[in-house]
Each structure stands twice: as C-alpha cells, then as structure tokens.
Design brief:
Elements lengths: L1 H21 L2 H25 L11 H21 L6 H7 L1 H6 L5 H8 L6 H17 L6 H27 L8 H14 L9 H10 L7 H8 L15 H22 L6
Length: 269
Amino acid sequence: MAEHKLLRPYAKMLTAQVRSQAQYRSSFFIDMAVQTGFSAADFVTVMVMFGVTTALGGFGLVDVLVISGVSATGFALADLTVGNVERLKTYVRTGLLDAMLIRPRRVLPQLLVVDFQLRRVGRVAVGVTVLVVALTASDIDWTWWRIALIATVPLAGALYFSAMFVMTASVAFWWIESGEFANAFTYGGRELTTYPINIYANFFRNLFAFGLGFGFVAYYPTLLILGRPDPLGLPGWLGLAVFPVALIAAGLAALVWHNGIRHYKGTGS
C-alpha cells in the first residue's frame, strides 16, 4: 500500500503526459511514423551493406540481423523509458531541475515522466519485428534455455543502455554542454552493437566492446543463441555476461547520478 502511494504521483504525471500527446492525434501518429521510419532505416543500411558482400566478419545477413534486432530492441526499450533523461542539460540550463529539487519527490523519476514520449514505442515495434523475422529465418536448434535467453537478453540490454543514458546525462551536472559527449556513448554504442565486434580494430574493440561492455549487449548473447563459436576465440559462456554487465552498469549509473545531485549547486535562476 505504501509503495502504491509512493508511485501514484509519478503515475499521474505519466498519465497526464500521455493524455496531452493523445489530444493531437494527427501530430502524434506522424511523429510515431517518422520515428518508426528512422529506426527501420538502420536495418535498411544493414541490408544495403549485404548488397555488396555476402558476409560481415564471417556472419551472414540473417545472423547480423539477429545481432541488430537484439541491440535495437534493448536500445529502443531504454530510449522509451529512460531516454528522456538526456534532456537533463536543458533542465539544468533553464532552471527546471531546480524546481524539481524543491518538490518532495525523487528527481530522477520526475525527469523520466515529465516529458515522456510515447511515440518512441514505434522504435520498439521495429526492433522486435526485425528480431522475430531474423530468428524465424535462422536455423536455430531451439531449446528452453535459448528461448529464455532471447526473452531476457533484450531486457538486460535495455538496463545496460538505460544506465548509459543516466551516466552520460549526469555529466551535465559538471559540464552543461555535454550533449555530444553523451550521444557518443548512447547512440554511438547502439551503432557499435549493431554489428559483429570482430569487424572493428583491436584498439576500438578492446576499449568500447570489452572495456565499456558494449560487446556483451548483443554480440556474445547472439553467438550463444545461434550456437556459433566466437571468431575471436573467446568462450561461449560470455553470452551470459550481459546480465552481470548490465547490473554493474546500473550500479555505476546510480553512483554517478547521486554524486551529481549531491554536488549540484543550481543555476541561480
């Protein structure tokens, strides 16, 4: 009962946002169609690449589409639920964050619901559709654990990308004009996880795929689902590393966020 009372104000703010967007239905559906089209274009890019080659890093079109579908679904879920936090720099500059801080509610949930964009659900639909089509076209030997893996890996990926959104947006507490820096890790990370990591140069792969954990979001889980060995020679159990990696990223994001809130001095507006 106490939890319901705690969440009720956020639920009302979220409902108000959805209702306000639904008031302008034509605009809403046009926005959602545009968002869906841009997301679909990412997969068209993959298919165009396979128009000039038959394999990418030793992987065929269907295999790469499975990797892309896992990555896109996880990213789209994170973008739908947490992506709004990237507007933190704007709220700091305009003083809206100061107004949130004086309310008797947690700041991060307020940020997530204050400008919730329902139209982003189209991106989730595209990612799920591509993933289902690619899995149907593949010759996977389905077992119960592979079904469980494909059902949970995009959720773990969503947690990982959500953590990246929060961590990189929190930089605005110290550096307001940090938007491009944040985009390099969020949207740049999405692009990196769209393709097999063995196509990247060693330095780039070691830094971003292994050092920052992007390689465990879609590539290694997909190898386990497809039953394929890693061309880099690493063990198959790395396909399960997405879960601890996502939890570690979430913990780091919480630390960065709370440290930023604690040191935030306000804009003086």
